[in-house]
Amino acid sequence: MKTTNKKVTTYLIGAVIALSLFSGSAHAQKVTVTVQNLTNGSHFTPVLVAAHNQNTQLFKAGTPASSALQAMAEGGNTSGLQTALDGAGANYDSASGLLAPGNSFTSAQINTDGTDNFLLSLVGMILPSNDGFVGLSNWKIPSKAGTYTLNALAYDAGTEANDELLGLDNPGMPGNAGIPAAPSGHAGAGGTGAAREDNNKQVHIHPGVLGDSNPNGGISDLDSRVHRWLNPVAKITVTVTD
Amino acid sequence: MITHSKKILLSGLILSSLALAACGGSGNKNSKTTEKEYKVTVSNLTANQPFSPVAIITHTLSYSAFRAGQPASVALEQLAEDGSNKQLLDEAGKNSAVIENHSGKGLILPGKSESVTVSVPLKTTDFKLSIASMLVNTNDAFAGLSTSEIADMEVGDSLEKQLQAWDAGTENNDESSGVPGPAAGGRGFDAIRDDIVNVVTIHQGVVTQADGLLTSKLNASHRFDNPVGLLRIERIK
User: Which residue(s) pair with A110 in the sheet?
Assistant: First the structure.
């Protein structure tokens, strides 16, 4: 009990000092972002985490995907988004590999000192999916130092029909049908296609993978017992330091 | 303001009646100095579930459009099964705890948004905003939210809330004859309460024919996950 009380007191004093010292500084934070994959059977392609200004965004629900977002959502390629972020003077970091179910990626410390990059966004393609991605858009980085946790949702880029088919020609290429890979395994083949087009062509909440239980046919090459998810699909932990 | 006046002048005599109408509007403006004003925007983030005309109600704390775990009112059942917000708004209009009630202009299709402006007297400090709108390709699912956070907003503040899909608990989810939307073209309101539980709960989602419910008239595109929509509130006055 005593130890706990002391800790609380120390923390409170620390908070007061932090407030008084830094209340005047604007958008001069360093943020470290951890993304944990909360799905059961889906991987994330290398996650891109960015602090950017209010004139920049990676995506916005209810509006059409940019071609750079489409390349990320259909094939995991973030080079177009990184070019856009460079042009906007954003601060960002990205993972170097796939993020398996349950695993976490922690970014390098992203330093926004001397910038107006007070918004945080992140994206990573969900595999296996046609154009599903985990996303966070325009979260305002708090001016107060601390650790913040958020839930991230699965979005559909609205750029490709969710046919749920593997083994098609160059499926990760923007505009090409099909799913690039199913890194967690358990996928089938010979499906006839779960959908022919996206009804909602704006970025929207992903309706989820359908899948089926037929590994050698059916409508989907995915397994409904393995590859489905429900929101939230990721836990985001943001550590803000001055 | 000056630019606006010039525009009206330049538009000429033919539009003089419109200019008069604009003058009439300025009278309203004066009265609105005693009111807070909010722009309320509802966005449909589903893949293929049009939203019925949204019901938007501002009210003090003794009113509620729906409550989780409680049976739906017949008016909410009308909205959730038929997409008709009329009875809910009519009843709200007669309730002394209701400040304003508004209907959206029409369906909000997937990927689309609609904005409505609502006003609240300056002196009213403790109030909520409630909204409800049917997912029309379901039996009795609706996007709904009630928030008191609107009362804490200053001019210029904006707030975003995620809309969850609720099951009104008033109709069995047959995904067929009881679905009035374009996916099934079935029946709307039916007074019989034949759902598993007669209370409002978070919707468990639709199964669809694609997932093995062979009698379902829904396909994979009609599936949804939460949140199904986004509510954005901006205090503009």
Answer: A31
Contact assignment for B113 to A156 by CB distance below 8 Å: no
Give me the amino acid identity at A129: S
- How far apart CA B229 and CA B110 sit, in angstroms, is 9
Put simply, whether A210 touches B (Cβ < 8 Å) is yes
Q: CA-CA distance, A137 to B87, in Å (whole number)?
A: 37
Q: How many domains does chain B have?
A: 1
For residue A39, is pLDDT > 60? yes
β-strands A234-241, A146-156 pairing = antiparallel
- Kindly state whether A88 is in contact with chain B, defined as any CB-CB distance less than 8 angstroms: no
The string of pLDDT tens digits covering residues B142-162 is: 999 999 999 999 999 999 999
Report the residue count for chain B: 237
Residues belonging to chain A:
242
CB contact under 8 A, B45 and A194: no
Q: Are B126 and B107 in contact (CB under 8 A)?
A: no
Residues in chain A within 8 Å Cβ distance of B50: none
Answer yes or no: do A199 and B223 touch at CB < 8 A: no
Residue B29 included in any domain? no
Q: Domain range spanning residue B81?
A: 35-235
User: In angstroms, what CA-CA distances link A180 with A23, A34, A75, A184, B196?
Assistant: 48, 25, 7, 13, 41
Per DSSP, what are the bridge partners of residue A50? A92, A121
User: Is the predicted ipTM greater than 0.85, yes or no?
Assistant: no
Q: Name the DSSP class of B136.
A: T
Confidence of residue B165 (pLDDT cuts 50, 70, 90): very high
| pLDDT band, very low/low/confident/very high, at A27 (cuts 50, 70, 90) | low
Domains of chain A: 26-158+229-241 (2.60.40.2130)
Q: What CATH number is associated with residue B125?
A: 2.60.40.2130
B27 to chain A, closest Cα gap in Å: 36
Kindly report the nearest CA distance between residue A218 and chain B, in angstroms: 10
pLDDT of residue A21: 38
Q: Return mean pLDDT, chain A.
A: 90
**B158 located within any domain:** yes
Half-sphere exposure of A194 (CA within 13 A, CB side): 33
Peptide linkage before A101 cis (omega within 30 of 0): no
Residue type, A128: P
Residue of chain A nearest B112, judged by CA positions: A62
